[in-house]
Amino acid sequence: METDTMDISEQLLQGSQIQEYLEQIAQLRLTIFREYPYLYDGQQKDELEYLKHYASHTEATAIIASCGNELAGAVTAIPLQYESEELASPLAATQYPVERIIYIGELLFYPDYRNKGLGSRLLSRIEQHFLDQKSYDYLTSATVMRPDDHPRCPDGYVPIDRFLQRSQFVKLAGVTTHFTWKEVDGIPRDHEMQFWIKALSPMIWQLWRQDDNGQRFLVGESKEKATAETRMAELMKCLHKQTYWIEKAIE
Q1: How far is CA 150 from CA 38, 41, 74, in A?
Q2: How many CB atoms are located within 10 Å of the residue 61 CB?
Q3: 243-250 and 70-79: which strand pairing?
């Protein structure tokens, strides 16, 4: 079926407004997560149990994409501090403050609505929504890790990593979590999930100096870490040694 993206309507919902759409989102998750790489054999009641906390938190947000009366896809997001320990704890061990992070629960579309730019469109809208609130600095997501030679990997499969990288998410090396679910062959398995993060505002790299009296001075800022590192290396060659370091900041 050919679908013009102009025919797709979007509705942004928050908190209790999401309740009306929980069954549709649950069915979307059950359908799409059966596909590779998740291979998830889930139950409607379990999905509804998980999703109901979106309807109970005022800051939880969903954008529903529809074509007429038909659900095309959805993106859901919630402050990470309201998510499970399995999702919040790994980020708590990083430099990123959990209370400033939004967790993207899913960004899913039925097959007829894929590869039309809708993923980028909905993601951009939800980013702007939370950026406007000025209470959050980052988005995070977690994706299942599969070996390249997995026997159920279909021909022509394109990993979600490419979309995340294009959308300026950064893989958090070594930051993972684990969930167990029953796969489509009926066998429960442990699954490692990889975290990704994205700054809602552009990041800059600040070069700082501390003098002999302990005073701190901002030497300069750069959009590229390599530029800041090169400048720091040049300054550290000076005969009068002072302390230099680089910090990340939001522009």
Answers
A1: 12, 18, 28
A2: 25
A3: unpaired
Q: Which residues contact 157 (CB under 8 A, 6 or more apart)?
A: 36, 37
pLDDT tens digits, the chain, 251 residues: what are they?
Answer: 555 666 899 999 999 999 999 999 999 999 999 999 999 999 999 999 999 999 999 999 999 999 999 999 999 999 999 999 999 999 999 999 999 999 999 999 999 999 999 999 999 999 999 999 889 999 999 999 999 999 999 999 999 999 999 998 999 999 999 999 999 999 999 999 999 999 998 667 889 999 888 889 999 988 778 888 899 988 888 766 789 999 877 66
Q: Is the peptide bond before 37 cis (omega within 30 degrees of 0)?
A: yes
Using CB atoms within 10 Å of the CB of residue 3, give its burial: 0 to 12 exposed, 13 to 18 middle, 19+ buried.
middle
Q: Which residues make Cβ contacts (< 8 Å) with residue 145, sequence separation at least 6? A: 176, 191, 192, 193, 194
Q: Which whole-number Å values give the CA distances from 35 to 55, 153, 197, in the listed order?
A: 26, 10, 24
